[in-house]
Specification:
Blueprint: H1 2-12, H2 19-27, H3 32-47, H4 59-83, E1 94-96, E2 99-101, H5 103-119, H6 123-147, H7 161-179, H8 184-194
Antiparallel strand pairs: 1-2
Helix pairs in contact: 2-3, 4-5, 4-6, 4-7, 5-6, 6-7
Length: 198
């Protein structure tokens, strides 16, 4: 009975079992279950070569994209508790801390936040997000230089000086995310993970 079990086990796990493992099973039948689990876990651990968050060469841009995504999403949601939906795209004089907002401004924050969270899943996505931040907030910063201080419909995002400083800083951080360097050997490993024939 024991030999039949050993033969079945050896056939079922032949790619996994080593000679030492088979000797352990034969000599200690009562420890067979523990040995099987240890061997399978070891095989799974050795075969799983996917990059983790800690050893991913793109961890810095991905982390920045994720953090900025979460922050902007939270800011956009909280903003609606302050502005409601009135004066959707006009000057409001309503503030979140030092930053002037209106409902349209909140929508922009939510969209930017969701994009950051979605694109932070890969280095390519994080870099794309960085370029979007740089281009989008760069344009908004230039627009803000003209719009700050205006109270008519031309200031449709209800921007003040604090907003404009934040938008300029965000554009620069977007550039950092887009251009953050990774080591040549890390870049090669990323390329091989995408195309194993390299």
């Amino acid at each position: 009975m024991e030999w039949a079990f050993e033969l079945t086990l050896s056939r079922a796990f032949q790619p996994t079992l080593s000679g030492a493992f088979e000797r352990t099973v034969r000599g200690n039948p009562q420890r067979t279950g523990t040995a099987v689990w240890r061997c399978l876990l070891r095989r799974w651990d050795m075969s799983d070569t996917r990059p983790t968050w800690s050893n991913d060469p793109g961890v810095v841009p991905r982390t920045l994209a994720l953090v900025f995504g979460i922050v902007y999403l939270v800011v956009g949601i909280v903003g609606f508790f302050i502005t409601g939906f009135d004066n959707f795209a006009s000057h409001t004089d309503e503030h979140l801390l030092w930053f002037e907002i209106n409902p349209l401004h909140n929508v922009v924050h939510i969209v930017i936040g969701l994009a950051g969270i979605a694109l932070a899943s890969s280095l390519t996505g994080a870099r794309t997000y960085g370029w979007l931040l740089f281009a989008g907030y760069g344009i908004v910063f230039v627009y803000g230089l003209w719009a700050v201080g205006r109270t008519g419909n031309e200031n449709f995002l209800s921007i003040n000086s604090a907003d404009n400083v934040l938008h300029g800083v965000t554009a620069l951080i977007g550039l950092v995310i887009a251009l953050w360097p990774i080591r040549a050997d890390a870049r090669s490993s990323v390329d091989r993970s995408i195309n194993p024939t390299l």
